[in-house]
Amino acid sequence: MKILIPVDGSANAQRAVDYVINNIATLKDAPQLLLLNVQWNVAAGNVKLFIDQATIDGYYREQGAAALQAARAALDAAALPYQYHISVGTPAEAIARYADEQAVDQIVMGRQGQGGLQALLLGSVVHKVLHLTSRPVLLVK
After folding, report:
1. CB of 50 within 8 A of CB of 107?
2. Residue 56 — pLDDT band, cuts 50, 70, 90?
3. CB 96 within 8 A of CB 30
4. Would you state the CATH architecture of domain 2-140?
5. Domain map (residue ranges) of the chain
6. Over the Cα atoms of the chain, what is R_g?
7. Rounded distance, CA 92 to CA 38, Å?
8. Mean pLDDT of 85-102
9. pLDDT, tens digit, for every residue of 6-52?
10. Which of 7, 42, 100, 105 is the most buried (most CB within 10 A)?
11. This prediction's pTM
């Protein structure tokens, strides 16, 4: 079984990681855990005229690693193996695409991410994932 856990560094995303850790013993076989962080594409428009691609890629890696840090630490402390990936794009589309590419059996995610004004303007990532994927999605409060 493959379980995808999208992580954005929020408390809600961490609750999803903690839920998986606390309930993994209920599964018959140990699942393959996949962490995914999606970075918004900042290299739009004329940005590339002023900042080179290597700097932009470094920014994505740095921000993604920071967002994944708590989730990775929790999984390491629980001695659970996992893989992680940092993607660039629109979060909901990237989550649905990665779930399909990796043929995951379930997506486990917090009911909302970093939210706030961004969620009001862009819509809920969770809501969009639910509409974009045919994979089972478990929402953790």
Report:
1. no
2. confident
3. no
4. 3-Layer(aba) Sandwich (3.40)
5. 2-140
6. 15
7. 9
8. 97
9. 999 999 999 999 999 999 999 989 899 999 999 998 766 666 667 88
10. 7
11. 0.88
